[in-house]
Amino acid sequence: MSEQSSSGSVSSTDPGGLELARITARAGDMMGDGVAVWTPDQALAWEGLLELGRRLRRRADEMLAREYGLSISMLGIMGRLAGTDAGRLRQNALADAMGLSVSRVSRVIDLLEARDLVIRTQCPTDARATDVALTDAGRGRTADAQAAVFAEVSGAFADRLTAEETHTLAGVFARLLAADTDPSGDV
Question: In the structure, how many helices (H) and strands (E) does the chain have?
Fold first, then answer.
């Protein structure tokens, strides 16, 4: 990992400095000359957030594909179904919960249905709607895959942070996420 100076800035002389410089250069690639007003720490914080998210998602996705024949989207849908009291959700509710289009969710459900992990049924309260439910095989695969993703993310992220770092990150993200939903945009 990179060395930090007493001010908390990442040292440019550390062995990972070239990798960090490459990652932070992406801020300029994405935002142009305006990013020149940022400090190196600001560029690293922004691009580090994006890069770590990409890496963690890719690792989880590769592990899921290799060990369970699933993608992150598949597990997300299956996990939402497993977490319901009724064991079923409307297809459009799944799309809303996942932040995906109905057509994208429909394609993923097609794949899961072909593997006998979910079934589609007519909604008992609305004949126009389609419900999706896990099969017994789907419920078992979901539990196993969720445990594996938890172990993967814990090992690559949570276990590498101190309690103080976790608390700091949680506070920062809570504040930024709350400001993002605040119509005034105040941070």
Answer: 7, 3
pLDDT for 74-131, tens place per residue?
A: 999 999 999 998 878 999 999 999 999 999 999 999 999 999 999 999 888 888 888 9
CB neighbour list of residue 92: distance below 8 Å, 6 or more residues apart = 102, 129
CA pair distance 57, 34, nearest whole angstrom:
29
Bridge partners (DSSP) listed for residue 121: 131
Residues 28, 15: Cα–Cα separation, whole Å = 22
pTM: 0.75
Given CA atoms 50, 185, 32, 18 in this order, what sign does their dihedral have?
negative
Q: Given a cut of 70, is residue 142 above it in pLDDT?
A: yes
- Strand locations in the chain (E): 88-90, 118-122, 130-134
Q: Rounded to whole angstroms, how far apart are CA atoms 181 and 173?
A: 12
Pick from 78, 82, 81, 99: nearest CA to 90 = 81
Residues 108 and 19: their CA atoms lie apart, in Å, by: 35
